[in-house]
Amino acid sequence: MSATVPSPHDSLALVAELEQVRARFAAIVSNTPGLVYQFVLHADGQVSFPYLSDGCQALLGLTTAELHATPQRFLDLILPEDRQSYQDAMRASAAAQWSWNWEGRIWVDAWKDVKWINLRSTPHMLADGAVRWDGIMTNITDSKLEQMEVRHSRARLAELSAHTDRVKEQERTRIAREIHDELGGNLTAIKMAVAMLAARLEHGAAEPALRDKTDYVDQLVDRTIEAIHRISLDLRPPLLDLGLVAALEWQVKEFDKQTGIPTSFSANQRDIGLDTDQATALFRIAQEALTNIAKHAHATKVSVKLARLRHHVSLKISDNGAGIAQADRSKPASFGLRGMAERARALGGTLTLSHASGGGTVVAIKIKQEIKPDTAQDRLMPPAAGATIAEENISAAK
């Protein structure tokens, strides 16, 4: 049985169709930003570029002929510190037959400049054991520089925020001490003088109205002293000077007393290992979390747990209230949550919000920190009144 020989007319039609396909492909490639390529990793470890589009020289500073002749020159373009990640990504893609997506820096000698490139390609296993990738390389320098600028801007903003918080706390401390020392001392002297005046009026024939006025001034001084004490505590609790554990114990008791919500506190160490600025920032986060609970949670029970672990410090505030909806977390005016997150980031840590089991919310803060091994004295910390000592490590919110 003889094979069918295509007629000259059919051959011409096939050639015309092939040329049309090639023209379409060339048009698509010429209008594709970047470099369209085929790359082959041979079984003996050698590499080659069977196909390179005209974008080769514009992207890599090499002509297609140069890269065809010496494929190794592409690896030489990659900065030494980025070559290992390039080769690792290539081997992983070849082994698993999944897409190869890599970005890194190259040195373009023609322009004496560094470029960021991204390559995306799909692997195909060949019959001889080689792997061929079909893909595209693009110049992502502008977008990478923009990303880096955004990161730098955020870092500078975080530094400014942290500095502002430190200055604010220093000013709070100064004002609190001046109020306590200056105004407190003056009011104490006024109270003593009023007491002496009242004693003399008791022994003399003073009018009742004058004695009433003296009693009123004495009561007014007492109320003012109480107000000064409260304002000083709000500005900066003196217990922060004794450490974070003491300050949180006090804050939890105050929250319990003011809101009527049963609130427990536990800590697994006496010395949490934070400096004054870190302890103050963590205390402010706890204050803000408790304020949010009082305003919005409708909770009937709250717990605050502090733990010093091997590589980080953990603070977890949990309630059994209504919880926080996702829409509430992303509100533009959610400055309380944003402030808490910013303080945590400034400490080199993270803040997460999650749903508590049985309802409510868990605010978990983790601060990475290398801490020296505990001393026996630390481990034998006695529980304070109204507080319990956690017997297990506090885990971060899931």
Automatic annotation (TrEMBL):
Pfam families: HATPase_c (PF02518), HisKA_3 (PF07730), PAS_3 (PF08447). Residues 178-371 form the Histidine kinase domain. The keyword Cell cycle does not apply. Keywords: Kinase, Transferase, Two-component regulatory system. InterPro entries: HATPase_C_sf, HATPase_dom, His_kinase_dom, PAS, PAS-like_dom_sf, PAS_fold_3, Sensor_HK_TwoCompSys, Sig_transdc_His_kin_sub3_dim/P. It comes from the Bacteria. Residues 39-97 form the PAS domain. The keyword Transferase applies. PANTHER family: NITRATE/NITRITE SENSOR PROTEIN NARX-RELATED, OXYGEN SENSOR HISTIDINE KINASE NREB. This is PAS domain-containing protein. It comes from Duganella levis. The lineage of its organism: Bacteria, Pseudomonadati, Pseudomonadota, Betaproteobacteria, Burkholderiales.
